[in-house]
Amino acid sequence: MRQIRRHPARTRRRLRTRSLALLTALAVLLSATAACQGGGRPDDGPVDPYDPAAIRYGLAPQPHPDVTYQPDVVLVGGGGDAVRSVTGDGLTWRIDPEADRADELAPGKVMFLTSRAVGRVVDVHREGGDLAVTMGPVELTEVVRDGEFRTDAPVPLDRPIAYSAGTPSWMVADLPPGTGSRGGIGGGAPLGRSRLLRVGAPAPRPPAPPARLSGTETAKAGDLQLTTECCRDGVTARFDYDDSEIRMHGSVTLVMQRPTATFDLAISGGTVTRAEFSITGGAGLRVSVKAGTKVGNSRNLSKSVVVPTQFSIPVGTILGIPFSATVDQSLEIKTAFSAKDGRLDAAGEYSLSGAFGYGYRRPYWGPVSPGGFAVRNSLTNSITGISLGASGLLVTYDAKFTVGIGALGFTAGLFVGLRASVGASLGSGAGLIVCRGAGLGVTMRYGISYSIPKVVADIVNFFLRTFKTRPIKQRGELGDETVVVKRSETVPPDVPLCVV
Length: 500
Prior knowledge:
The strands form 3 sheets. Strands 1, 8, 9, 13, 14, 15, 16, 17, 21, 22, 23 and 24 form a 12-stranded antiparallel beta sheet that branches. Strands 10, 11, 12, 18, 19, 20, 25, 26, 27 and 28 form a 10-stranded antiparallel beta sheet that branches. Strands 2-5-6-7-4-3 form a 6-stranded mixed beta sheet, with no helix packed on it. The chain is globular, with a radius of gyration of 27 Å. The chain has about 500 residues and is mainly β. It has helices at about 1-5, 10-35, 50-55, 195-200, 380, 455-465, and strands at about 70, 75, 85, 90-95, 110, 120-125, 130-135, 145-150, 155, 160-165, 170-175, 210-215, 215-220, 225-230, 235-240, 245-270, 270-295, 300-305, 310-320, 320-335, 340-360, 365-370, 370-375, 385, 390-405, 410-425, 435-450, 480-490. It is built from 6 helices and 28 strands. Keywords: Signal.
């Protein structure tokens, strides 16, 4: 007590010194703890991924000491609050010209504004009080040079945000004669030309409809009505078509039970050295189709449909990068009626259990396919119809899961997709033997980078040609596919007339 009274200034200095040392030690401890916990796990950032601005335009990236971006990447500040609007195709973003580093944007640079607003700049100019930035898609390694990212726990795919492109010109394309069932997302067959390419002029590009927190979305293109659902009980595409001559409606569902996603990704020197991606909760495939015609073989339906809706679930901000799990879908619908006033109905359900995904250790792939295939309800036994001639239909459904960054079909990251082709045929009712035949094929595709339908790539390249930029690729280089199921049967069996 006597020392305090005799030397108050010295004592206060000693207390301040001890307090400063304590605070410094605490800051070092917290920093070390954060570093130990920051090895690729989602950061506990203050931004809610379901904040209105984040829902509509995505979360903002942040610099991080454990991530090296490519030298031409521009992290534009402001996140979703800096976005004024975006076109439905996701290519042109109108942003605040006063946003941090927006003045550095130029053709050839990579803009990274949000988890959805990321791409290679092909044009940038002032438009009123906005800065209009048009971008092409990029691969993940064109954004990140070095970094390791992973989830420590499975991410539930149970709270999706529905993004719609409206009714884009690439939504529906006519399939050329003889096209097989490989024209879905990432397929290798040509998809024909859409209306935009036939008339030779760009279609209007209106702003994207507002995003919303929803597991259901609808879309309409001409006589085609689509309803899509995701993701708690699986992924579904319902379709209805009626042009007064041909009618067709049905649904395809990749049945799932509370699906989750996990991933582990390492990039070094701009090259992916390790990648693991898994979707759990697979349960089966369910299909139901009804088709009819008044005109027979004088006209049949043959359409490729890129569903203009993407369901997105925020994964979290990992080392400053806001990852999302997204689901994209596409359909091919074909009828083969040889006589008018025909009808063909079919329905079936099959089980496919377990996880699906892959592991990659450069340069080796290790696919993990769903198993447990079993017939719950035979498609062949369900086929019914009326026709004086043979009838047939083919529906190919593609559901693609991606973890990465980007918007709509241009999401770059780790992807795995299941493509199911279901065919049904019915012999002529005028014959002695009425044959029924069905075929089912399921293929799993997997890889790294983006993968888009050819018709979308054609349309985008047609549009980007205005800016004299190099064309985009339909898919990235890393990836493969494997057959999961291939099955066909006829009733009655072993009758030559019934072979499909």
